[in-house]
Amino acid sequence: MYVLVVIFVVLSIAVYVISRAYSPSASKQIKQYYLNILFLLLALIMGLRGVTVGADTDNYRQIFNDIASTSLNIANVGFFYDGIEIGFVMYTKILSIIWREYQFFLLISAVIFCFLMKRFIQHSTADYYIASVVFFSIGIYLSAFNIYRQMLAVAILANAWINFTEKQYAKAILLTLLSTTLHVSAIIFIVVYIAYLFRNNKIVMRAVPLLMILVYITFSDLIVSIAPFMEHYGNYMSNHKVIQEVNTVVVLWLIEGAVSLFFIYKSSMSPMRQFLGNMTLMYVLMNLIGLKFNYVERLGLYFAPFLILLFCNLSDSIKNRNVKDVLFLGLITCFLIYFLMSTSTEQYTYVSPLFSVL
């Protein structure tokens, strides 16, 4: 199934390149059709998967069945129900009332997640091809097969950031609060808002990477200080779980880090690109800390949407058409290969109840 995504992207780019040579206006429509069809395809693949696809998919089935079969009194539930934030509990309960079928829950969840991420891309960049390929290649899409609760919070916050940049602060605040009822760790997104407010201050923007180095060095002491305030996540703070391992993804971190530093310290770069560079470094920082401490890399997921914009802005920063085209093809090729490599692991071996019916 994942190969279908790659084939569709390649064919769409070929059609777009040909149409651009003959009808620039038609090529713009093709880009929009491409984005809509691609995200529909991604939603169907994600929503029609079997419970064995994704390490946590079967766990979510148990959660769904438990919530569906329980009569919930909101006044007595509190912020957490069986360790799960109330927002996600109510979301699950509503879907179970509509149709008490887990596959329906998976499909609706996939459609909502993919729609939110498509909206983020549409409102943030015109480079739909690079943006969409980066989205489903770097782990945002595949992470939603597993830790959906957090990834839904990530998608909502990506849209809250759009509202924030458009000075729709009430909407941004409401969406941010909503995301914390899905996964309380979403509160870290406040860092994004603060950084955005200081984006025009070059001194601050250039000082942020130095602050990140300090955080990395002192993180062991920092986590001891905040642990008493994170009792609900004591299981994560104890550092006895399996630590994430580095593999070929380290190459991607190096590339992201290099592009980020280029954006931050090159004097001609715009404030927005400096901001994107710092948010990407936050993603890399959380992953590096995650090599030593349980699940800290998951905090980096809140900054992952900005990786999409980072690579789009890298393309936009190149004026030479030939160089730009070479970079475009290089990025698309590398990310498509990385996507196929990521989906080749056992947990993503694709099966679907739909195939058994057919």
General description of the model:
The radius of gyration is 21 Å and the shape is globular. It has helices at residues 2-22, 24-47, 57-68, 74-77, 86-98, 102-124, 128-137, 140-143, 148-165, 169-182, 190-197, 202-226, 234-237, 249-265, 271-289, 296-300, 305-316, 321-342, 353-357; strands at residues 80-81, 84-85. The relative contact order is 0.12. The chain has a two-stranded antiparallel ribbon with strand order 1-2. Strand 1 and strand 2 form a beta hairpin. It has 358 residues and is mainly alpha-helical.
Q: What's the tally of helices?
A: 19
Give the CA-based shape. Answer: globular
Q: List SSEs in N-to-C order.
A: HHHHEEHHHHHHHHHHHHHHH
Biggest sheet, spatial arrangement of strands? 1-2
Major β-sheet profile:
2 strands, antiparallel
Rg is: 21 Å
Query: How much β-strand is present in the residues?
Result: under 5%
Average predicted local confidence, pLDDT: 90
Span between N and C termini?
15 Å
Number of strands: 2
- Structural category is mainly alpha
Annotate the secondary structure layout.
Layout: H1 2-22, H2 24-47, H3 57-68, H4 74-77, E1 80-81, E2 84-85, H5 86-98, H6 102-124, H7 128-137, H8 140-143, H9 148-165, H10 169-182, H11 190-197, H12 202-226, H13 234-237, H14 249-265, H15 271-289, H16 296-300, H17 305-316, H18 321-342, H19 353-357
Antiparallel strand pairs: 1-2
